């Protein structure tokens, strides 16, 4: 086997075969399957896009919100895992290495929440948003470090999509020590999210969505609980309206958002998935306009078009890379 072929085989994508009359899409999956995956990804992006508006409207500390959305998701998944023999058997059958990778993914998700949400109080929302959405850049770089050479279209699409986010947020990096610290935390959140996506893609090669998500969210919940306790963050005493918003956030952003991202990363791959997450920024702006009456800036729609164009390039690059494998 050539070195180039070995590098391509290291990409965490499923080994899907198709018949001679069956066209292939991203990661070699049938076109119909890819369309389903992209539809699920669109639902996931819509779910996570509700996150920022809901957090802005929820009267609870940021870290407490992060803890409860994961804890409630674990609570919802527990009966499914305990009472469905298939999921119980899958959990018992997970190997040590795979389990450790799932735990590591949960730890990175906890880091993502733990450093990004506080950054919103230290630097501008625009700077924090732009820096945390560097995820696809770090994903592509990490893939390169693992020996995979992303096609030029993937690099170009990633850069174009990120340009769309910069256009929308209008980055205004500050030189104050507090703001710089907040910028650093947001950047760390983007790196952690990239590791989370990559590890999730690796685990999902052999583990189902429910089992992986359960281990991941449980790890995230435990670590965020420790962070809240160490930081003296209040975890209760909220109004009924706040608890309702936390429940909606769990269903929309966690169970539909992150869980569906964990579902599709196996078929679409980490580059496409992480680039698509950039759509959360204009999605949140549009939802805030409809729900909170916060009119999006004039550049929201052109920025959305630029991000979509970048995502299309990444998908095309993934197809060509697979076709040449």
Automatic annotation (TrEMBL):
Transmembrane regions: 38-56, 62-83, 99-119, 125-145, 152-173, 179-199, 211-236, 242-261, 273-293, 299-318
Database matches in InterPro entries: EamA_dom, EmrE-like
Pfam families found in the cross-reference section: EamA (PF00892)
Keywords of this entry: Membrane, Transmembrane, Transmembrane helix
Region of interest (Disordered), ranges: 1-27
Highest taxon in the source lineage: Bacteria
Bias (Basic and acidic residues): 1-10
Domain spans labelled EamA: 38-168, 181-315
Family of the protein in this entry: Belongs to the EamA transporter family.
Protein name (Swiss-Prot/TrEMBL): DMT family transporter
Source organism of the structure: Streptomyces ehimensis
Phylogenetic classification of the source organism: Bacteria, Bacillati, Actinomycetota, Actinomycetes, Kitasatosporales
